[in-house]
Amino acid sequence: MNTKTLMVVSALLMAICGVLFQFVPTSILNYFGADPTGISALFVQIIGALYLGFAMMNWMAKAVLIGGIYARPLAMGNFVHFMIGALALIKFGFGAQNSLVIWIAAIIYALFAFAFAIVMFTHPQKVGKDAKA
From CA 15, how far away is CA 63, in angstroms rounded? Predict the structure, then answer.
């Protein structure tokens, strides 16, 4: 699997989410029918900071050989984030009404969880000029 593409795409996705959560937390809370005042807006902004941190980590590690024992903490962190996120979104999606956005997010999270599981549990293969035939 080409881990560089996976890392770039996951970094971009998380950066977009992080920026949105940082700068429009009240709009996001209003969309989902939550109270945008008080501590909930603060928590959304903190989650945005987490997304931006993960995005930066993935972006900076895009050229690193990942898989097997190589960069295992990086692969494990991404796998755990996306797997637990997918499970939580799926659980919430079954109970929510008008949950198209939740289901789209759940599918995206599940795809990333699957991709990072493959990266984590398989031996890495070099791609490019340095790869041996």
Answer: 18
